[in-house]
Structure formats: structure tokens, C-alpha cells
Amino acid sequence: MRVLAVTSQKGGSGKTTLAGHLAVQAERSGAGPVALVDTDPQGSLAEWWNAREAETPAFARTSVEDLPGDIEKMRALGFELLVIDTPPAITGTIARVVAVADLVLVPARPSPHDLRAASATVEMVGHLGKPLVFVINGATARARITSDAAIALSQHGTLAPSILHHRTDFAASMIDGRTVMEIPGARKSADEIDRLWTYVDNRLHASYRPVLPVAGSNGRAAGPEAMPAPRHAVAAGSY
């Protein structure tokens, strides 16, 4: 099982939207079973998942303290990918998540505030020896600030070649637990997510150190209790 952490020091960078979209796209691309973990006390990813009608991806109820052990349990259950959403600001929570990740994805909007925040994230991830990839999120088409942001971020680390542009369909799809790949008329946004996942998937395989597989059966839910609770009764847990 590969572990993807979505993190940024800057709030409002689109971490939750990106985590949900990549998890769904991974399932659609045959890279599942996929599980989600929400370590942000606001619980936005958990709320999105509870509103979701589709059976995948799964949601794992765990805590940051239990995360290393629960990762092994999810691996034994047969999950292939774990996507972890994190809170804003550089905290001990983020460091613990990054420590168990195979790849760290850092969304950044093309704004001076996001660019200034990038250095702290890079320093923390680099200290833990984890590979990092930036993705420009919420970009305006043909705006000079987007190309300026790409140049600035590439000086801090690897930049994903797929840029996500600002469109209302990203936010609109998240209201009822869906993604842009699952609503009509969002082809451009869906294509951007598809290209981004293809790149992230390749990077995950490149950075992943294989472990001996543990026999187990795939399930709808994962976590300390294998999550047998009713579909809409799942809570984000205590962090």
C-alpha cells in the first residue's frame, strides 16, 4: 500500500478538495482499493465522505497516534492506496503524517502568500527525508502570476506538470460528496485531475519501497474496527 499525504502550511490551498479528487480518480483508474484519512480537526474531508453516495473510496477512522499501526491493518485488508488530508500550519500532526508517507503533495495557489508558505513546508518535508511534489491549484488561465508561481515553486522542489485551474465545478461537486469526474459539464476539470493522478501515480511507484504482502480481504472500510458502522454514521475520529 502506498501512502500519499496532502499537506500545506497555508490554509485555503485546496488540500481537502485535492485529496478527495485524487482518491476517487485513483479508484476510477484501477489503483484501488483506496482509503482516506482526515487528520484536520475541522473534518471537512470526513463531511464530504459522509455526504457521498458512492461506495468508494473507503474512509478510515483513526488518530495520528494510531496511524502507523492502522496503516499496517489497512495494508493487511488489501488496500492499495491511502490518501491523508492534513490541517493547515506546520504542526506535530503534519510531521507525523509526513513521516509515514511515501509521497507528499503540496497544493499551492498562485499567490504571494502561498509561495511564501512553501519554504516552511519544504524544510519540514526535507528534514524527514520524504519526496515532495508541488501542484499549482486554483490558477487563472493565461495569467502571468501562474507562470511566475510555477517558476518560484520549481526553485523549491518538483512541480507537477498538470495545473488545476479555478473553476466553480470543483467546489460545487464537493457539496454533495462528488467530484468533477462525476458531474456533467466538467470535462476540462476532470481532465486536469486525470493528468495529475497519472503523474502522482508514477511518482508513487517510483518512490515506493515494496514490502512483503500480508494476506487479507478487501473491504469497504478500514481502521481500528474495520469500520462496520452505517454508511452515514462514520465520524472523523479524535485527533
How would you describe what is shown here?
The chain has one domain (2-209): Rossmann fold. The longest helix has 21 residues, at 187-207. It is globular, with a radius of gyration of 17 Å. Mean pLDDT is 85; it is low at 210-239. A 7-stranded parallel sheet has the order 3-2-4-1-5-6-7, with helices on both faces. Helix 2 links the parallel strand 2 and strand 3 (58-59). Helix content is 39%, strand content 13%. With 239 residues, it is an alpha/beta fold. It is built from 8 helices and 7 strands; from the N terminus they run βαβαβαβαβαβαβαα. It starts with a strand and ends in a 32-residue tail after the last helix.
Brief descriptors of the model:
13% strand; alpha/beta; single chain; Rossmann fold; 239 residues
SSE map:
Blueprint: E1 2-6, H1 15-28, E2 34-38, H2 44-50, E3 58-59, H3 67-76, E4 81-85, H4 92-99, E5 103-108, H5 112-127, E6 132-136, H6 144-154, E7 158-159, H7 168-174, H8 187-207
Parallel strand pairs: 1-4, 1-5, 2-3, 2-4, 5-6, 6-7
What is shown here, in short?
The protein has 8 helices and 7 strands, in the order βαβαβαβαβαβαβαα.
The biggest sheet amounts to: 7 strands, parallel
Strand content: 5-15%
User: Which CATH-level-2 architecture?
Assistant: 3-Layer(aba) Sandwich
Strands of the widest sheet, in order across it, are 3-2-4-1-5-6-7
**Distance between the ends:** 23 Å
Overall pLDDT, averaged? Answer: 85
Taken from the alpha-carbon principal axes, the silhouette is globular
CATH H-level superfamily title: P-loop containing nucleotide triphosphate hydrolases
According to CATH, the fold-level topology is Rossmann fold
Instruction: Count every helix, treating DSSP H or I runs of 4 or more residues as helices.
Output: 8
Question: Can you tell me the CATH class?
Answer: Alpha Beta
SSE string, helix = H, strand = E?
EHEHEHEHEHEHEHH
Low-confidence segments, given as residue ranges, are 210-239
> What's the number of domains?
1
Estimate the helix proportion, in percent: 25-40%
Rounded to an integer in angstroms, the radius of gyration calculated over CA atoms is: 17 Å
User: How many individual β-strands?
Assistant: 7
Helix/strand/pairing class, anyone? Answer: alpha/beta
